[in-house]
Amino acid sequence: MKFPTSHVTLMLLSVAASFLMTSCSSKSAFQTSSVIPAARGYVNVKQDRDQNYIIQVKLDYLSEADRLDPPKKTYVIWMESSNNATKNIGQINSSTGFMSNNLKADFQTSSSYKPDRIYITAEDDGTVSYPGPVIVLTTGRLKG
Q: pLDDT tens digit string along 121-137?
């Protein structure tokens, strides 16, 4: 079956537009930490074709949680979302199994809600429902 050139062009533009919409992402750096000044990292958020938000966190120079004063057991990643909720979206364990000798950590998850801000707290329990007072890293308001 042969399509008129205008139909082919329209189909190609539709495919390209849908690809651009699903591959758009925003990258936001964490602000300098007063708790761990050497810690650096960023959050990358992109929307997949099912309209979920893929949240990727990359960290460098994040000291082990048990070296903080007072010592903690783990780091918890929190998301403030567009529906005004704060949610524990996961934890970063600072054991050798999860972090390299260079104190690097990666984390990825998905959410049906658009994240407005991501931050990391030091906690004694990774399954807490509310963030503790020790905010280690935070982004500003996320773009997009």
A: 999 999 999 999 999 99
